[in-house]
Amino acid sequence: MRAPLLCSLVLVVASCEGSPPGPGPAPLKEPPAARLSALDSETPVARARRGIEQVEGGAGDWKLFSVGADSSVLYGRLVPAPGHAAPEYRLGHLASNGARLSLPDALVTDAIALPNGGVARVSSGRLLIADRAVASDVLPGLAVSPDGRWLAFASGPEPESELFRVSLQGAGAPVALTADGAAATLPHFSPDGASIGYVSNVTGLPSLWIMNADGSGKRQLTNAGLLGDRAEDALRALPAAEGTHAPVWRASTISYFDGARVRAVASDTGASLWQVDGGRAVWGLAGQLVVELSDGSVARVEGAAP
């Protein structure tokens, strides 16, 4: 494991700086369980799944990639691909009225809808924005900044993937955000776009980190391994809720699934704020936090710190 570098990268012209990570936040007491209440309306994810089934003729092996602010739905049908490490999907795109939208006929491992109506996708390890190839060796887990200007992603041969961002408003090269010689994955922007949360195993355990959107100011938020104690678990940490690509960030709180429960931590201190035992997914609904419980029911989290 290499310490973060003061570097200037060639090809993906970027600058990054850092210092050897410390031991991480002090161990925290278990937070109080969050209060839950039943939802009085159907969730966007449930509506999206129903729309997919109506168009595709019933249930199937789907993956819901994203639900847009305009209620458009980007999804994929699983395509058997023996010998491929990551599942591959054939893209489908539905408008809010259920009409099919045209997409390239290509297999993908991940995709996300863009604010301009386009799609960014990972196909055969290549990141494509519209039809422009941006990077190779790209892992699933894409994030678009709230202002629609940036796309963040992880790239690099395992187990030393790094994070990058690329402009969605031009043809510039990707800019490196990390250069830690460790597995950095699953970037997710804060609501104001000023910060990026991500998962890194630079300290030896996959943990939740935060940095400024330009890659500076890296800080470790959690000091416990996510989904296991092995470094390679970073590549599978924090599975995103269906229809999202990363943990849900609400104001200064990041909510995520750690393999056993849904938890929330403060992005400024790393303090553990609440947990929901048995929860297996979390997403935002009209400014609220929603948890899917292990029994299949869906509930609103009350009293969650902003």
Quick gist of this model?
By secondary structure, the chain is mainly β.
Structural commentary:
- The protein contains one helix and 26 strands.
- The strands form seven sheets. The chain has a four-stranded antiparallel β-sheet, with no helix packed on it. The protein has a four-stranded antiparallel β-sheet with strand order 4-5-6-7, covered by helices on one side.
- It has a domain at 41-247: Methylamine Dehydrogenase, Chain H (7 Propeller), CATH 2.130.10.
- It is mostly beta strands and 306 residues long.
Kindly list the characteristics that best describe this protein.
306 residues, mainly beta, Methylamine Dehydrogenase, Chain H, four-stranded antiparallel beta sheet, 1 helix, 26 strands, disordered N terminus
Q: Any chance you could write out the topology, listing elements then pairs?
A:
Layout: E1 7-9, E2 14-16, E3 35-38, H1 44-56, E4 62-67, E5 73-79, E6 88-94, E7 107-108, E8 110-113, E9 119-123, E10 126-129, E11 132-135, E12 143-144, E13 150-155, E14 162-167, E15 175-176, E16 184-189, E17 195-200, E18 207-212, E19 219-220, E20 248-250, E21 253-257, E22 261-266, E23 272-277, E24 279-285, E25 288-293, E26 298-302
